[in-house]
Automatic annotation (TrEMBL):
Keywords: Glycosyltransferase, Transferase. GO terms for molecular function: quercetin 3-O-glucosyltransferase activity; quercetin 7-O-glucosyltransferase activity. Pfam families: UDPGT (PF00201). This is Glycosyltransferase. The keyword Transferase applies. It comes from Solanum pinnatisectum. Signal peptide: none annotated. Coiled coil: none annotated.
Length: 474
């Protein structure tokens, strides 16, 4: 390892774009403090990459499905089980290879979706840190399921639950979907397994910030060595302390940057509804129809990200009608966009989102009010926090068929962008934006936590190195 580096940190994300990007942004913060970073990505994920960051070393490991990754496996459970077996082996080989090349690893920062990484770290005598890509409230709920405190499934649909650490009561419609429905008890087991060996790690890092989740962080900190290090979004949009940090660097889809920004530049200030359901969510055709009609009926300009695989679900001739009726000025549908540039644009008035955590954190960081339409996983909990705790958005409620109707979508958009209640929401959004910037700036809570993590990692590494040298000499 170069003498200019204090420590070598190996980053192991779960191979999904949202998981990787948040860990990559954290890595950039560490790298700016002279920590050497190597990111271990699966061969299957690397095959699909459009571009890779040049400043960070990337090494390949195997998940056992090198041709197609998760999609090649029969089920999610089969994928995770195979990944554990093959991943443990190939990660160990990588650590050995790096040691043999004179660049030994000192610490593994891993995604708790892959808890077996702790055992690999212990086998090599390495420091380990779990990096939770979801917020602390969601982690807290899974922790209570892990401990058997939450009865599954909740006995009544609208039964209010008071969970230790959470600042508000929640209903069954607010908890992660894996907890309350039949998406698969094995998937819930995998979520809960994030805590299976957490008592063995040196740190628990959370992609959130203290001011956003004070109560639950204080409560969880009594159990685990928790440090909030977020929001992990590009420095260019927060504190601007990392030079040239303008791109995430890892992207499965190619953004239509020029089309989006040129169109936004011609829209009035705060007039546009930005709509995106991220890189994974799949809406039913009926829901796509209701969303399309709700956007049109709101009489607001809208920029809607519809991935190419989802486009066939749009109402027939919808895009053509948009072009004919308004010269493409009322609405623009794109396959992907440069999201932070869009959210930052002065023409954006609100963000209609499924409330995945990365997207939610980006909206918080850029002060954009939200209309939430949660679909699955942690999204209902995030939507609850957005509406009732952070008070910077509204939740569009589903009907008994699980569909959010056009009238509801129209009403929510108008509430956020026009009504008196929307004014309070917009003011709160500005407040959270300021806090998000402050926490990663000099002296902020997340900045201090990252400094402490680096300092302790360097100290522990020196002690271990000294012990190894003494052992060799004896």
């Amino acid at each position: 390892m170069s003498t200019s580096h204090k420590v070598h940190c190996l980053i192991l994300p779960y191979p999904g774009q949202g998981h990787i990007n948040s860990m990559l942004q954290f890595s950039k913060r560490l790298q700016s403090k002279r920590i050497k970073i190597t990111i271990a990505l699966t061969k299957s994920f690397l095959k699909n990459m459009k571009e890779l960051p040049t400043s960070i070393s990337i090494e390949a490991i195997s998940d056992g499905y090198d041709d197609g990754g998760f999609h090649q496996a029969r089920t999610f459970v089969a994928y995770i089980m195979r990944f554990k077996e093959v991943g443990s082996d190939t990660l160990s080989q990588l650590i050995q290879k790096l040691a043999d090349s004179g660049c030994p690893v000192n610490c593994i920062v891993y995604d708790p979706f892959l808890p077996w990484a702790v055992e690999v770290a212990k086998n090599f005598g390495l420091i380990s840190a779990a990096f939770f890509t979801q917020n602390c409230a969601v982690d807290n709920i899974y922790y209570h399921v892990h401990k058997g405190v939450i009865k599954l499934p909740p006995t009544k649909n609208n039964e209010e639950m008071l969970i230790s650490g959470l600042s508000c009561t929640i209903e069954s419609s607010d908890v992660p979907t894996f907890v309350i429905n039949s998406e698969g008890p094995r998937i819930l087991e995998l979520m809960v397994n994030q805590f299976s060996n957490l008592d063995k790690v040196d740190w628990v890092l959370i992609n959130s910030f203290y001011e956003l989740e004070k109560e639950v962080i204080d409560w969880m900190s009594k159990i685990y060595p928790i440090k909030t290090i977020g929001p992990t979004i590009l420095s260019m949009y927060l504190d601007k302390r990392l030079h040239d940090d303008k791109e995430y660097g890892l992207c499965i889809f190619k953004p239509m940057t020029n089309e989006c920004l040129n169109w936004l530049n011609h829209q009035p200030i705060s007039s546009v509804v930005y709509v995106s359901f991220g890189s994974l969510a799949k809406l039913e055709a009926e829901q796509m129809e209701e969303l399309a009609r709700g956007l049109r009926n709101s009489n607001k300009n809208f920029l809607w990200v519809v991935r190419s695989t989802e486009e066939p679900k749009l109402p027939k001739n919808f895009i053509e009608e948009l072009k004919l009726t308004s010269g493409n000025n009322k609405g623009l549908v794109v396959s992907w966009c440069p999201q932070l540039q869009v959210l930052e644009h002065e023409s954006i008035g609100c963000f209609l989102t499924h409330c995945g955590w990365n997207l939610t954190l980006e909206a918080i960081s850029l002060g954009v009010p939200m209309v939430t339409m949660p679909q699955r996983s942690d999204q209902p909990t995030n939507a609850k926090l957005v509406k009732d705790v952070w008070e910077m958005g509204v939740r569009a409620k589903q009907d008994e068929k699980g569909i959010v109707r056009r009238e509801v979508i129209e009403e929510c958009i108008k509430l956020v962008m026009e009504e008196e209640k929307g004014k309070i929401i917009r003011e709160n959004a500005k407040k959270w934006k300021e806090l998000a910037t402050n926490v990663v700036d000099e002296g902020g809570s997340s900045h201090k936590n990252i400094e402490e993590f680096v300092s302790k990692m360097v100290t522990i590494s020196k002690v271990i190195k000294k012990l190894i040298n003494n052992h060799k000499n004896n």
